[in-house]
Structure formats: structure tokens, C-alpha cells
Specification:
It is built from 5 helices and 5 strands, in the order βββαβαααβα. It is α/β, with parallel strands linked by helices.
Length: 157
């Protein structure tokens, strides 16, 4: 994986998850336009878990470079609305229960993602993009995530 430039003020990163069956074989991917990228696979997962994992792995990879801001672009309303609509704040107030009083699904992934997104020195924002709509970088991470799901292993560069 190529390192981010030291003077990078803001980084935009695209993320996506894919699943063959739900549950089934899954893949996740992230990519910085014209920059580094990575993907990974899980043999037994769900699409929602792969969407969260993509954002989590992107923030894990990009935070050490300490950009001033990271914008996560995802076609997952599940991931984006957690932050734009403040779902995570309600989950914390309700001791990791959703608005129906049930345990929050995928808490094991949400906790570290929320920690990185709201508790770091980096300003992290989330933006939704329509999937399969011709957006070059959304299409690229979809391709990487699907390839990881199909092959059972990820890649980076």
C-alpha cells in the first residue's frame, strides 16, 4: 500500500461491501482516488457487516497519516446514516440497544468504527453515493469488494 502524502489536508475515501448470499462469502474494499486501496474477505458474513468493515478498515489504514479530515463515501445508507443521523448517539444512550429496544446488530464492528470516527484528532465525515450509478470510485470499490468475496482473499496497492 502506498503511504498518503504527509501534507494531505483532506482525504476522500470510497468504501463498499459485497456478499455472495446473505449470509455468505463476503468482501470489503476501500480506495482513495488515485491513491492507496485495500480489500479483504470473510467466508461467512453479511452484506451489512462488509459495509461496516470497509469503512472501519479505511479509517484504520488512513488515520496513522493524520490527515486533517477524512470523508468516507459509501453507498450504504446503514453506514452513512449511523453518523449523519446520529444513530450511534442513541445506541450509546440506550446501552447499545436500538430504538425498538433490541441489541444493536454488528456491535463488534460499530464500536471500533465509532471510536475512530468520533474520538480521533481527525475530522471524519460521511457522504452517501448511489451505488451502480456510474460513479468511477464507487464502481472501483464495488469491483474490489466483489473480487474479494469471489476469490476469498483481498488485495492492496
Amino acid at each position: 500500500m502506498r503511504p498518503m502524502p504527509a501534507d494531505a489536508a483532506q482525504i476522500i475515501v470510497y468504501t463498499d461491501g459485497a456478499c455472495r448470499g446473505n449470509p455468505g462469502r463476503g468482501g470489503w474494499a476501500w480506495a482513495v482516488p488515485d491513491g492507496p486501496y485495500a480489500s479483504g474477505a470473510d467466508p461467512d458474513t453479511t452484506n451489512q457487516r462488509m459495509e461496516i468493515m470497509a469503512a472501519l478498515e479505511a479509517l484504520r489504514a488512513l488515520e496513522p497519516g493524520r490527515p486533517a479530515a477524512i470523508e468516507v463515501v459509501s453507498d450504504s445508507t446503514y453506514v452513512v446514516k449511523c453518523f449523519t443521523d446520529g444513530w450511534w448517539q442513541g445506541w450509546l444512550r440506550r446501552n447499545w440497544r436500538n430504538s425498538q429496544g433490541k441489541p444493536v446488530a454488528n456491535r463488534d464492528l460499530w464500536e471500533p468504527l465509532i471510536e475512530l470516527a468520533v474520538s480521533s484528532d481527525v475530522d471524519v465525515g460521511f457522504r452517501w453515493v448511489k451505488g451502480h450509478s456510474g460513479d468511477r470510485w464507487n464502481d472501483r470499490v464495488d469491483e474490489l469488494a466483489t473480487l474479494a468475496a469471489d476469490s476469498g482473499h483481498g488485495t492492496s496497492g
